[in-house]
Amino acid sequence: MMIEANGIDLHVEQRGAGGPALVFLHYWGGSSRTWQHVVDALSPDYRTVAIDQRGWGKSAAPEAGYALSDLAGDVLAVVDSLALESYILVGHSMGGKAAQLAASQRPRGLRGLVLVAPAPPTPLALPLDARQGMVHAYNSRESIVATLQQVLAPDGLSDGDLDTVIADSLTGASSAKAAWPLATSQEDITAVVPLIDVPVIVISGEHDLVDPPEVLRREVLPRIPQSTLVVLPGVGHLLPLEAPTDLANVIKAFVLAQTRGGFFALPEAQQEVALTRCGDCGMARLTASTTAPRRP
């Protein structure tokens, strides 16, 4: 469905029912389809709202207006348009940085924040020539495949997911492709993210080359004191495609903690938890990390 929000037409995919609603923001190069496997796992129990951010997917693509304030304003306008009274923001990479800014405004109804391999609140630490090269990363099938193999998902994706990523990256507007590396990624929101007043979980891939776990430990956790880190083993930056089941399980555990009480209801107890599996049943579960630093 198309929603006119924040002065722009945004495409939104909705499924399921039940609260709190889960509102998804994709990475630079993706679309609402990035979340399809995660939504498949969660929509039987929760209302899911996946947004094509401006310039991507089926949403409108203005020539300008790609600042973080625009992206954050878009998602909050969608929330208002859908009259979501209780919701959790789930942002991946670029979408994670937009979600941080949105959450820092303490919007009514926000119950939690899930940051999936998020861009930190600090400026992207890449020189200008490297960021200028990023502008062309999605110009052709060949350049997209090279970006996946070298940076985003070196361990590979399924054929179906590869086709989705290529199609989404190719159809992105040139203005959106350029805005993130040249401008939006350089925004510094460190002054406002401490204002976030809801529980936060940060989910990282062990082999992420874009925003590795050590970067998130250094740049995100100290600035959002009520945040907890989970590192998913053996995967890279595209967690919604590489490990959708594990990601959905972590999100579900986080949501249940906010609605029923549980580990994440006491985020000050531990800064990092680990995803482990039951040796007998194979089910995933979250346990306190033996290597994680405890909060003072």
Your description of this structure?
- With 296 residues, this protein is an alpha/beta fold.
- The chain has a single domain (2-269), classed as Rossmann fold (3-Layer(aba) Sandwich).
- The chain contains 10 helices and 10 strands.
- It has a 10-stranded mixed sheet with strand order 1-2-4-3-5-6-7-8-9-10, with helices on both faces.
- Helix 1 (36-42) packs across helix 10 (244-260), helix 2 (68-81) crosses helix 3 and helix 4 (128-134) packs antiparallel against helix 7 (174-182).
- The radius of gyration is 18 Å and the shape is globular.
List keywords for this structure.
19% strand, Rossmann fold, 296 residues, ten-stranded mixed beta sheet, 10 helices, globular
What is the element layout, followed by pairings?
Layout: E1 2-5, E2 8-15, E3 21-25, H1 36-42, E4 48-51, H2 68-81, E5 87-92, H3 94-104, E6 110-116, H4 128-134, H5 141-152, H6 159-171, H7 174-182, E7 200-205, H8 213-219, E8 227-232, H9 239-242, H10 244-260, E9 272-277, E10 284-288
Parallel strand pairs: 3-4, 3-5, 5-6, 6-7, 7-8, 8-9
Antiparallel strand pairs: 1-2, 2-4, 9-10
Helix pairs in contact: 1-10, 2-3, 4-7
Mean pLDDT: 91
Instruction: Indicate the low-confidence ranges by residue numbers.
Output: 265-270, 290-296
In the CATH hierarchy, what is the architecture at level 2? 3-Layer(aba) Sandwich
Count of helical regions: 10
- CATH H-level superfamily title: Alpha/Beta hydrolase fold, catalytic domain
Shape: globular
For the CA atoms, what is the radius of gyration?
A: 18 Å
Give the total of domains.
Answer: 1
**Beta fraction:** 15-25%
The secondary-structure element order is EEEHEHEHEHHHHEHEHHEE
Query: What is CATH's topology name?
Result: Rossmann fold
Major sheet size, sense and barrel closure: 10 strands, mixed
| Structural class label | alpha/beta
